[in-house]
C-alpha cells in the first residue's frame, strides 16, 4: 500500500513536469525554441515533440496505457539526453537523467490502480 502511494506521488510529479515542459513546447516558448533550435529542430518539430509529451501524460495516467505513456516519456527524455551528449553538454545530461530514471522507476512500481500487483 505504501509503495502504491509513493508511486502515485511520483506519477503526479512526473505528470506535472511533463505538462509544464510539453505545454512550453506546444506553445513555442522562446527557451524551448532556442534549446531545440541549436539541434536544428524548428518550431514545427518542437510543436510535435510538445504534442507527444502531453500525449505521454494522458497515456501514463490510464492503467491500460500506463507503460506506453511512460515509454513515450522516457523516449523523449532520452532524445534530449542524446542531443546533450552530441554537444558534450554533461550538465544538460545530468539535468535530464533523473527524469529518465524516474520514468523507469514508475514503470517498475507499476500503476497504483492496476490489479497486477
Give a written overview of the molecule.
- Helix 1 (2-26) packs across helix 5 and helix 3 (43-61) runs antiparallel to helix 4 (66-86).
- The chain has one domain.
- The mean pLDDT is 94.
- The chain starts with a helix and ends in an 8-residue tail after the last helix.
- The longest helix is centred in the first third of the chain and has 25 residues, at 2-26.
- It contains five helices and no strands.
- The chain has helices at 2-26, 30-37, 43-61, 66-86, 90-109.
- The protein is an all-alpha fold.
Question: Could you write a compact summary of the structure shown?
Answer:
Helices cover 79% and strands 0% of the residues. It is built from 5 helices and no strands. The longest helix has 25 residues.
What does the secondary structure layout of this molecule look like, with pairings?
Blueprint: H1 2-26, H2 30-37, H3 43-61, H4 66-86, H5 90-109
Helix pairs in contact: 1-3, 1-5, 3-4, 4-5
Main sheet: strands, sense, barrel:
none
Ranges where pLDDT stays below 50 over 5 or more residues in a row are none
Give the percentage of residues in beta strands.
under 5%
Mean pLDDT reading:
94
The multimeric state of the shown protein is single chain
What is the rounded distance between the termini? 10 Å
* Number of helices in the DSSP assignment: 5
Radius of gyration: 15 Å
Structural class: mainly alpha
Give the total of domains: 1
What share of the residues lie within helices? over 70%
Shape: globular
**SSE ordering:** HHHHH
Number of strands: 0
Amino acid at each position: 500500500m505504501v509503495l502504491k502511494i509513493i508511486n502515485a506521488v511520483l506519477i503526479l510529479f512526473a505528470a506535472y513536469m511533463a505538462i509544464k515542459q510539453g505545454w512550453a513546447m506546444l506553445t513555442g516558448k522562446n527557451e524551448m525554441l532556442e534549446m531545440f533550435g541549436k539541434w536544428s529542430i524548428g518550431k514545427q518539430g518542437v510543436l510535435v515533440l510538445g504534442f507527444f509529451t502531453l500525449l505521454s501524460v494522458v497515456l501514463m495516467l490510464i492503467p491500460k496505457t500506463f507503460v506506453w505513456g511512460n515509454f513515450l516519456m522516457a523516449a523523449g527524455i532520452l532524445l534530449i539526453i542524446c542531443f546533450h551528449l552530441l554537444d558534450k553538454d554533461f550538465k544538460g545530461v545530468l539535468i535530464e537523467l533523473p527524469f529518465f530514471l524516474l520514468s523507469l522507476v514508475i514503470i517498475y512500481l507499476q500503476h497504483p490502480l492496476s490489479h497486477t500487483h
